[in-house]
Amino acid sequence: MDKLSPGIMLIADPFLKDPNFARTVVLLCEHQEEQGSFGFIINRPFEQKLDELIPDVLVPNIPVYQGGPVQMDTVHFIHQVPELITGGAEIIPGLYWGGDFAAAIQLVNSNPEESGKIRFFIGYSGWSQGQLQGELDEKSWILSAIDPVLLFAADGQEIWKQSLRNLGHSFAMMANFPIDPTLN
Question: Of 72, 107, 70, which Cα lies nearest the Cα of 88?
Fold first, then answer.
C-alpha cells in the first residue's frame, strides 16, 4: 500500500511527535494532488457525546470523535446506510461521508441500533497540496487498506494498536512501543 486515495487509513508512526496526530488512525476521505487531502481521526474520542453537542439528538451517549484539529466547530459523519441518509459522497463501496444531516439525526433518534453504522466527528484533518506526501516521505504515516470492522469498532482507543497488528509481525511489534523510548 503506497498510494494515497480515498479509503486509505493513515496510521501514525509510533514516534510521531505532533500532538494532533500521535498514535492516531486517520481515514482519508479525499485526496487530490492539486488541492490537498482531508480525513477524520477515527480513534480519538471527544469529551462530549452527540446529545451534548446537538440539541435535537434524543438518544444519550452516542460517541463523537475528534476528527482533527481543523474547524473544531463543525460536526461531520461517515456512514454505511446510503439508503437511509441520502446525499453522501462515496469514499469506497459501502462507505459514505456526509449527506442529509437531518436524516442522520432522525435515524439516530428513531432507530438507535442503526447508530452503530454512523460515526460522528467534530472537526477534521486537512493537508494542503503536497503536505501529506511530504509527511509520508518523512515516514510519519504508515498506509493501510481500510478495515470496516475497526472503523466502526466500539473501542476507538484500541484502533491504532489493532491497525498495526493487522499489517503483520513487523508492524505488530510497533503497537507495543513506548510513547517515549527514552523513558524506557
Answer: 107
Phi, psi of 131 (to 5 degrees): -65, -45
The alpha carbon of residue 116 and the mean position of all alpha carbons in its chain are separated, in whole angstroms, by 15
User: What are 89's three cell numbers?
Assistant: 459522497
* Per-residue model confidence as pLDDT tens digits over 133-171: 999 999 999 999 888 888 887 677 789 888 888 888 888
503497537: which residue's cell?
A: 175
Query: pTM of this prediction?
Result: 0.91
**Residue position matching grid coordinates 462515496:** 90
Give the separation between CA 114 and CA 129, rounded to whole angstroms: 36
Residue with cell string 499489517? 167
Tell me the backbone φ, ψ of residue 140, rounded to 5 degrees: -75, -25
3-state secondary structure of 3: coil
Could you read off the pLDDT of 82-95 as tens digits, one per residue?
A: 999 999 999 999 99
Q: Which three cell numbers stand for residue 173?
A: 511489534
End-to-end CA distance of the chain: 32
DSSP β-ladder status, 64-66 and 118-127 = parallel
Rg (CA), the chain: 16
